[in-house]
Structures are given as structure tokens and as C-alpha cells.
Amino acid sequence: MHMYLRLPVHLSLSRHKNRLLVFLFIIAIVAAGLIVLLINYVNKNRLFHGFYSKPTAYQLENAFPNLKFNSPVEFVHAGDGTNRIFVLEQEGVIKVFDNNPSVKAASTYMDIKDKVDDLGEMGLLGIAFDPNFKENGYFYVNYNRRNPLETIIARFKASNYKDAKVAPASETIIMRFPQPYDNHNGGKVAFGPDGYLYVAVGDGGAWGDQHNYSQNRSSILGKMLRIDVHKTDKGNYGIPADNPYAGNKEGFREEIYAYGLRNPWRFSFDSKTGQMWVGDVGQNEFEEIDIVTKGGNYGWRLKEANRCYNPRNDCDPSNILIDPIHQYPRGDGTSVTGGYVYYGKRIPALQGKYIFADYTKGNVWALSFNGNTKTGNELLSTEAGQVSSFGVDANEEIYILDHYSGQIKRLVAGK
Questions:
Q1: Could you say which DSSP state residue 192 is in?
Q2: Distance CA 412, CA 389 (A)
């Protein structure tokens, strides 16, 4: 005969109720954890930075508290003594304002939205004022358009260098070239110390440079170009006589200055040495900083940073590929933004260091170097936002553009 212990009905119901409450409590805890993780992801993993990031000696402040821009991608001055700053908005607008922290508003210098397609990585991506802008009123921009999908390098002309607005109708197209895809456009233009215009061009997009444009010197893609905008032997520009492939008989593009780049997102010249610094966005594993020299091959797609990519082994049998001065793994960021060697006076500790960032993580670093050799790399901030570009003013003070917030920020030494 088996004996069964029968609980009173009310005790049995009470036990089920307790189990249900415990189950609901566990569900609530899990849901709260998922919400916290989601918020952390949306904030680009910065929610817990206070727990695991090394404290830095620098903070960021809004350099122009009254100003906000729509997806800013470039910050330059014209070298004309007017104390003005020009900021590019990716959709196709150039804004201008006085370089004063208390400035109340930025006005529209030029609007070419009707010429520009700004989907994804496309848009109005670069501007360079002619070294003789005060005399000739010329400036040059790099923008993308569809139908056909292409990059355009165009010159515009101000009637007077002090003009508050420039007419889009003043456009002269200097060069144009087709783009196979709408990403990896490079986009920056800048005059070098030699007076020539340099143009950063990405590999055309898609995955892994599947058409091998970067290593193909008959293609303009995946290159750093150098052209003479004051000559006309190529239509509205010319080829500097000392370009690596000037006058070649092999079908190489004469505009090429250097090659083997994937997506050179922002470059600059050291204002004291003329050294050219390029941030080149990586594929799977590494982001890289290159010091680019005439005729150099920077490896892509044979290499990603200093590691073989395609092929995976024996990718440089002739030992001609130039490794980056600095690279960092995907744990530190996934899209490098090139910057400037700093020579301003506000932060003496950073003078002579190369300041750069990562777009996705909001990290800003200062790279120390001796010639072409890295001697150190210091994390300055983890809170810069989506750093689309850096800029320097006439005093060589450095500014940081946050693509998402539309703010222009600057570093401040810790108190």
C-alpha cells in the first residue's frame, strides 16, 4: 500500500504562484540586461567605458557651441587672412563662418546639392583652396554623382576672395572618372607644398578589391593622384614632369603619385617637413596609417596593413610593398580617419605628434614618430563620436568633426 502526501489545495496554488513570480522575475532581469546591451550597442559600446577605459589627460569641448552642421566631412581655411573657416556638409553645401568660439551662425558659401549624390559614402567629400586664392578666387572640390556613377573634381571661382557666396555656375570640371560602386571613394583633395593638387581615390568599393584596381596602374582607382591644375595638356589639368609614370609607354595612368590604397580616408601634409600622412581604411583585420612617398606601393589588395591578404602567403616576393608606420586591430576600431601633425600652441604636449581617430569607436590618438618610424601611440579620448575628419585653422590648431552630432570639437588638456 503506497502512501501519498496530499498538500492542501491552497498550499499547492501558493507554491505554483511563487514559482510563477520567480520565473517572471528572471524574465524581467534578462529583459533588462538585453535593453542595457542594446543601449550600449547603439552608443557604440561606450556605456561601460568608465569601467574599463584608461583615464586620459584630455577632454573634448564643443569649439563653436552655437553651430551645428549636417553630416560635416571637411574643415579648412582659405589661407587668405580673413579668419574664416569653411565646413563641407556631405549633402553638397559649403558653410562659412568666422573662426571665433562665440560665432552665432554659419552662412552658406555655396550650395551644389543638385549636383551631388550623398547616399552612403558618396557626397561632397573634399575642398582645397588654390594657393593663390586671394588673387585668382579658385577653389577645388571632389564630389560624387549618379547616372553615371562617377567622381568629379571641379573648380569654382569667387569673384573676390572676400565674397560671402560663390555661384555654382562658376564650375569648371577638371577631371571626372567612373566609379564601379558607390563606396570607397576616398574624396579628399589638397595642395601639397609643391603647389600640385593631390586627390585621394579609393579602390572603387565592393569586397576585397575583387577587380584588383589598386595594384593595376592602368586604373585610376586605389591611388593617390597628383595633377597640375595650372596646365592644360590633359584638358583642364596637366601632369607634373616628375610624376612616377609621366610619359610612360606601358599604359599606366600618368596622374598616379602612389598606389596600393584601399580607401584613403583623409590625408595631410606635415606643415614643417612636407611628409604626407594617409589614413587607409582596412578590410577585415587592421586599420592603417601610411607615410606616402612618390611611386610607393602601399600593398592593397596583396596586403592588409603588414599582413598578406590576397594571396594569403608569399604576397610580396620582391619586397617592394611599403608597410604602414602604424596599424591597429579591429578591437580598437573599424574605420580609420586620418588627421594632422599638430603644431598649434594650445596643447604643447601634443606638438609634433600625428593626431588621428577611428570613425566607429570615437577613439582619438596621438602618434609619436621619428622620421618614418613610430616611437609611441597615446590614446587621447574615447568620446569623440563619429570622427569624419580633422581640420586645422590658420594657427594650426586642430579640430575634430563629429559626423553624427554635427559638432566641431577640440581637445582640451585636463585640469
A1: -
A2: 18
Distance CA 91, CA 70 (A): 8
Q: What is the four-CA torsion angle of 377, 382, 385, 388, rounded to 10 degrees?
A: 0
Strand partners, 336: 358
Burial code (b: 16+ CB inside 10 Å, e: under 16) for 254-287 equals: bbbbbbbbbbbbbbbbbeeeebbbbbbbbbeebb
- What the block records as the C-alpha cell of 16 is 505554483
Cβ atoms of 178 and 149 closer than 8 Å: yes
Is omega for the bond preceding 84 within 30 degrees of 0, making it cis?
A: no
CA separation for the pair 20, 345 (Å, rounded): 65
189-225 in b/e burial notation, b at 16+ Cβ within 10 A? bbbbeeebbbbbbbbbbeeebebbbbbbbebbbbbbb
Read off the pLDDT band of 57 (50, 70, 90). confident
d(Cα 70, Cα 406) in Å, to the nearest integer?
Answer: 6
Residue 117 is which amino acid?
A: D
Residue partners of 161: CB distance under 8 A and separation at least 6: 78, 80, 82, 133, 134, 135, 137
Average predicted confidence (pLDDT) for the chain: 91
**pLDDT band (50, 70, 90) for residue 149:** very high
User: Measured between alpha carbons, how far is residue 292 from residues 14, 51, 215, 306, 321 in Å?
Assistant: 75, 38, 15, 15, 12
Sheet strands (E) in 53-123: 58-62, 72-76, 84-89, 93-98, 107-111
- Kindly report the pTM of this predicted structure: 0.88
In degrees rounded to 5, what are phi and psi of residue 282? Answer: -85, 180
**Residue 189 grid coordinates:** 583633395
